[in-house]
Amino acid sequence: MPRRLPLLLACALAVTAAPIGTAAPAVAAPPHQLAPYITELTSARYDGRTDDLLTGGLGFAGLRATTPPGFADPDHPTPAELRRRALWTSAGLSAGDGGGLGRLYGANVDRGRPVPGDGKVAGTEYRAVAGRGARSVSFVVQVPEAFDRARPCVVAAPASGLGGVYNMVGTAGAWALHRRCAVAYTDKGMGPAFDDLHSGTVMAYDGTTGPRTDVGGRAAFDAGLNAAERARFDAERPYRVAYKMAHSGTDPQATWGRDVLRSVELTLALLNRDHRPGAPATGYTPATTTVLATGVSNGGGAVIAAGEDDRHGLVDAVVASEPQMNLAPLNGVEVREGDRRVPAAGLPLLQYNSVASLLQPCAALTEPAAPGYGNLDPAAARRRCAALVGDDPRLITRRDAVRVGQDGPPRLAQEALVRIGFQPQSSYLQAAHYDPGTPASYAMSFARASVTDSLCGYGWARTDSSGRPAPYSRAELAAAFATSPGRAPAPGVLIDENSPGGPVADAKSLGPDGTHEYNLRGERCVLRLAFPRANAPSEERAWARRVAEGLDATRRTGDLHGKPTLVVHGRDDARVPVNHSSRPYLGLNSRTEQGQGTMRYVEVTHAHHADSTAPGYDNRYVPLGFYYQQALDLMWQRLREGTPLPPSQVVRTTPRGGEPGHAPALTAANVPPVAATPATGDRIRVSGGTVRIPDRG
What we know:
Layout: E1 3-4, H1 9-12, E2 38-46, H2 59-64, H3 79-91, E3 109-110, E4 113-114, E5 123-130, E6 137-144, E7 153-158, H4 169-178, E8 182-186, E9 194-196, E10 201-203, E11 209-211, H5 212-215, H6 227-236, E12 241-243, H7 244-247, H8 256-273, E13 290-296, H9 298-309, E14 317-321, E15 326-327, E16 334-337, E17 340-341, H10 349-363, H11 378-388, E18 389-390, E19 396-397, H12 398-404, H13 409-419, H14 437-447, E20 458-463, E21 469-470, H15 474-478, H16 480-483, E22 493-496, E23 504-505, H17 520-530, H18 538-552, E24 555-556, E25 565-570, H19 582-592, E26 599-604, H20 624-641, E27 649-651, E28 685-687, E29 690-693
Parallel strand pairs: 7-8, 7-13, 13-14, 14-25, 15-24, 16-29, 18-19, 25-26, 26-27
Antiparallel strand pairs: 1-2, 2-5, 3-4, 5-6, 6-8, 9-10, 9-12, 10-11, 16-17, 20-21, 20-22, 22-23, 28-29
């Protein structure tokens, strides 16, 4: 059983998240003391046989199983069972190794070779919480029994996406444990916590769920409604659920960097509390301990934020893969691919994604063989094409619609996606990436909206076969810590509250004439909040101001204070386009560091945001995860041996080919390594504020 450690609770309860737009300074506490923002801490020792840090006792063979580890009582899984399921999910080895995962890279592969044994790692795991309730942030610290006390190292690995605190164990965590480093994880204050307003079920810090009256002060999130407000809202809109990222009222993205730095501070303090022979004489400090911050997607954005917020040398280096980040105004920084100036660069996710969600149903009609096309309603998509025609230059202009005729709008929608900054070759991915829930949830988060605001007419709920909101089962809520994508617990979806005939799943939304039309009203509303109008109604202007304030609190400047930083990104990414993330950030970094930027950028052709091996992905794309693991190795060589990082470059890969669903197995020939000395035609260069990307390949 976990044992509770003594805490400075009197001080801790008075400390909550920093105000929006500020980074809390490092707490000046003795190295062995916990900082006062820690409000809860438990520890557990794993023997490496019955249970362990990396595989939850399953071993590599268990991680490869296609069936997830079960729960003795599905309605009441234990914290240990939820943890084990989360670790199984994080490794991803059940997907098979045709795409290279588990064979060329992954939790069971180190420096290109299989890890001997079953992968079980003995050690101590700490779970901690900073703050309370909606403002809480979860941490997990893993210290392997074989921790290298002579040359101590800490790897900070914040969660990707809206994932739970364990979701980087199978990637960055495995890599770190193989090197005898301690690992610091954080959910960045987002995570899968929820409040089911119908049943009153909430999630505790340990992942278990129960009635909010029973969970009480250990709830990781509560919608903040009193009993009367809850009853009234559930009567008006039954079965709705609030979730932490969208409805916490805290804009958690604004403190991503702070949360990563706090995870490192916590780890150093815990190491000092367990001071053993061989430890540095002065304790585990930034001066004696190598600290690498690394993450993927939202986690990649979080470690970039940590690098910028760290002004006191807590973090030694940063490695980020496909980082999702909102950039400060570029002010002269531009991106050129070959001879072409990229028409839009450096937009925040809310803006480019709100435009994309409007265009994607129409644009998807150009790729009938693409993944996700089977879920498309072609008639509704054609109606969306017609609705896009108007005066907005971001969509389809009337002049262009007349020019191309009746069958041309889908191609114009694809061209509009390119104008807003997506890569031309990502057109194949647009159908599968249609997800209006992403811009809607980010708008709610930036606006610090309550679930009762139903911003832009959106809600979240489980639905029945007709798409109508329906109650969750106890088992579905109970498993959310291990199964939720970070929004509403699975199988919850986005709801159009204003659909004619009553609330329904957004994917089944009806227009005013009663035909299926993909909720054009809601998507246009989010677009208006992302791009405010001076002549908008007063209520809309007020919400747009709140969104803009929340967004501005998350912007990144490019100032990494000289930290060596390596970023990898897939050129075809249709989730976080390179033109709005890594490419312009390279320019910002070069400018803020007076042309001597310490960031290196590797762009991988035929790679996108996910490493799916489903039919249609298998034959066209290579895994970016292979290059993320290689980037960690390159940075390790830089930190341990002083080996220079390779220059910024494009890596030319070769897709597996074959028919969808029958691609040959990925080999090393498909994924050449990052070059220490890339060819002249592959080098990415920055000069005079211009990022120049080779366009061949």
